[in-house]
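Lecture 7 notes. Example A: sequence first, then its structure tokens.
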Amino acid sequence: MIVGWEGPDDPENPMNWASSRKTFTIQPYFQPLVHLVANTKINRSLASTIFAPGVPKLMAEFGSTSSELASFVVSAYIVPFILGPLVFAPLSELYGRNVVMNSSNVAFLIFTVLCAVSQNMAMFVVFRVLQGLAGCVPLTLGGGTIADLMPAEKRGRALSGWQLGPLLGPVLGPVIGGYIAQEAGWRWMFWLVAILSGILAGGCLLVRETYAPTLLARKVARLRKETGNPNYTLPATQGQGRSPGVLFRRAIFRPLKMLFRSPIVLFMALEVSIVYAYLYLLFTTFTFVFRVQYGFGSGAAGLAYLGLGVGFLVGLFGTGSTSDYIAKKRAAGAAIKPEHRLPPLMFGVILVPLGLFWYGWTAEYKVHWMAPIAGTSLIGLGVLFVFMPIQAYLIDAFTIYAASAIATNTVVRSLFGAVLPLAGQPMYAKLGLGWGNSLLAFIALATVPLTWVLMKNGERIRSSPCFRVDLN
């Protein structure tokens, strides 16, 4: 006997949870679980950059003068994002979201404390990498959680609220960290993150599982126990009868199959990776640029990150309020297709290089400090217009396997984000801020024609038998 939901209105189906449980203070369609996930993401993302203004003090304490190492101690946090999502996304699709999330919360708290008490550079870097390994889980699972909870016509708004975490966290981090570094030292940055982690970890213990296959598997086990009938079973597509080892092997290769057999997934991963790498290059160089060019102290240097934050907020509001509307309008009464999410993408791939030109040349000639910060606002706005449509596309296209699709994206962008910042200061030393950022802008402009092709022919490419991927 195949077990499923008790009709389309089954209250146990996360899609049908009461509206009061799907309400978030800011986002009307946010369920409290997503609120906690989003806040956990803010804390994990805050951890990625809060340390940036304190780098000079850490380098001085541990006796290092290497500019590459100074960049790496910030970007080391995202090195595990290259492989971690390939493990955590499949685990969440085998055992559910909660067990993976709660385990990562405990690990993140432990490694954050160990960063705070590190006694030498090697010790710090090791625990910083392990902190990032635990920190990648909310960013990997969040998209899948939205797919669990929200129908397609409401996902755009929910996604914009979920993105508050990974985008505002890295901006708020240096603002807070700048003054903590100035007044209390770099170690207190990690103590603050540890305190927040403990509070949020406790909150996450109260939330319910959202992944439908896991909930149905529990229902099967309950029915077998209550009735003594072993014939209750899951649909074959959900892995009933296969060993956990077989299921995990299939699941762990699922993101790689998406990446290498779907040209659209590959291109989207590369497009996001370029702007993400630029973002982390800016995160790791802002402190040095504004201290050298404008004489900012540790506290004031953190404020330089607010330009990106303004761009992020405007972009989140814009995409959050229009994404579902645009998709419904383009669908014209029919079912919403993933391609209906893509129109804002073209604005993003133009705004990012425009902002880089503005930021680079105004900083090069030491125009008033508000000018380069205004340029970074354009970059932040463009990044949102790249991130949001692509994330929404992946969630709509892969639904039950959305976590694996997001993992694919996260792996590639994290590889770029970990490596490119190491070249930031040497590039600026060689080319200057003007031509250095112009080089980045020209590379970003090269994606414009490919974006146009994707928007015009995406559905035909996605549905082509040549690129159809069996994910089961």
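Example B, a different protein, same format:
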Amino acid sequence: PSIAAQCINAIAGIELPFQQWIEVIDILMGNVTNDASAEKLKDSSLEALGYICQDVNAAAVESKSNQILTAIVHGMRQQEPSVLVRLSATEAMLNALELTKNNFANTDERNVIMRVVCEATQAPDTRIRVAALQCLVRIVSLYYNYMDTYMKEALFAITVDAMKSPDNNVSLQGIEFWSNVCEEELVLACQEQEAREEGRTPNVVSRYYAKGALQHILPLLLNTLARQEEDDDEDEWVPAKAAGVCI
């Protein structure tokens, strides 16, 4: 981790809630989007943005959410030659997702976010793949009602492929995605029932993604469950445990 990024975050945590030093977001964005910037400068700037999104109250940086997203998306592009920059950008996206409510409400902006995240799930570097899958896990919880098109075109195939991965970290995120889908749809089922009883229309209705995917994901979950090793650390969250919860 960059010491400079941590220092910037510490100062931003004091200043930004009072709308002071708000220009730091533009400075960091400029560092990332300037092609002349050194790799380390881009990397540290993205780390700083990720820390700020994670630690500073969302209301304090809401006015700069577009600039934050511009920097992150720029760093996540397939054309980005630096693995470190792309990884830091993907990790920053994970922290920024709760700030992107307005962006997800806009179809074009949502398409851009989903495209760079889905592309990152196919990166050669496993760390980038895992971070991108973590983004999808968070996205399906935060923005379930926007997922219909993406589920059909990409998310189902991406997450099922992840579940089949021999890499535990990748497999784990594929399973977590479907656990989150199930949790979301259980909540929506309860809300729909309450709405019917009260004679009103629910705000969001279930798309029954889990039910539709069941015949494909259940065999994978059962196979993963059977892969549990005797020497697995009982405190470690491994795919076999995640599969049990998902089932």
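Note on Example B: The radius of gyration is 19 Å. The CA atoms of residues 148 and 205 lie 12 Å apart.
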